[in-house]
């Protein structure tokens, strides 16, 4: 049998291409509500869109206008939806970041998002209120090239896969534990999902339930994800990760994967056995921790029966705590020849963010330069545009930390931190370097991977390194020739990541760790730029804090 070939695309934003094709308006009406579902065979209350999780896939072409009318039918919770990877040029108020760009959508109300998808590529959308992404409120956006254009690689079929982790506790239960004294960590996820399907071992329940429907492996909702393929054909796989905690390794047993795109930008193709993706015949992916079982789906070669199960034993998972292959893959990703956007040679400002775990009034927090982020009651975009100076702290957070004396390999003797909702104000059109530095947590000899996501922009990834960033020597090692552009980037344990972007998109933009619990615990910042160039704000984004009556 002739095996299939796979071209792998790691979403989220695509290369700028030509214009000139008449744009369309794509309209969607969504109802967001609570339903009981069993995506991993264990029944729990989830958040669905039109009865589904993952939600409906938005499909469009470059320059189309997307209109999504969202009705919040949750009984007691607000919502907001972020269009992850869409830069929202000219519409910063529809970025969907509650507390940053809009007031939340209240229960029983309808909110209209309207924006242009100006570049082709693979994107995602997800909740951006509390930790609701972990409840199932997420989905895909696929933006095609204009008619007559094609990618710099050939394929026969196009498939989309979302990877996720899954907890049985509700997000409210998780939030209460994260906020309590003593601190209660959310733990490892119970399952991993491939496009909304996983398999929990019902026999592992600590307390057997008298309800036979609570955990039922015969429930069709949790039948394994299956991808049917035709021998000899090439498949483009758009693989997205929307995990709330987990860094994943994705592989297809018996096959190699050629990586051709990352965050929507074309990369110089390279072949992998395992794809490390952050936050596989047999589709299989792993959470790099020993207590979470691997996620599993089935790749079925036509004309085999779709329900036929693999005869092989699943391959062994990569070593969960070995960060070296993850660092090597990060360093291997370069922009594709012919599609390189050369970064500016120098920057106007350098900001170094030290990621640490701390305590604030006895509660465990994550901090950046010893400041733990808190949301104001009034969204920043509205407060800045209407000059509501009392809506948030006008003092900016620090641009760095004590580089010379801070030991990133040791738990800091003073674990206390401060909190603030101050922001970083960037000069419009300035070039900004951000150095993300990881350090020891509050556990001895421990550092974690953090995937950082920037709203409203792409950035050049200039380099990765191990240990403490050397501000005098490490910039000389930056890749200024063919760096990949991304909007989400990992910072590896006890390591650093350097990125550069142009502050050319008027608005207020969140920059944060994409791990749900870490953002909830304060691991984020906000950039503001070109506020005077932001157009009139729509009244629909107001109604909370000091925006009432505007």
Automatic annotation (TrEMBL):
Subcellular location: Secreted
Signal peptide, first to last residue: 1-23
GO MF annotations, alphabetized: copper ion binding; oxidoreductase activity
Top-rank lineage group of the source organism: Eukaryota
Annotated ranges, domain Plastocyanin-like: 33-143, 161-286, 414-530
Cofactor: Cu cation
Major localization class: secreted
InterPro entries (alphabetical): Cu-oxidase-like_N, Cu-oxidase_2nd, Cu-oxidase_C, Cu-oxidase_fam, Cu_oxidase_CS, Cu_oxidase_Cu_BS, Cupredoxin, CuRO_3_AAO
Keyword entries, A-Z: Copper, Glycoprotein, Metal-binding, Oxidoreductase, Repeat, Secreted, Signal
CDD domains: CuRO_3_AAO
Record flagged with keyword Secreted: yes
One GO CC term, this protein: extracellular region
PANTHER family: L-ASCORBATE OXIDASE, MULTI-COPPER OXIDASE
Family statement: Belongs to the multicopper oxidase family.
Name of the protein: L-ascorbate oxidase
Originating species: Gossypium barbadense (Sea Island cotton)
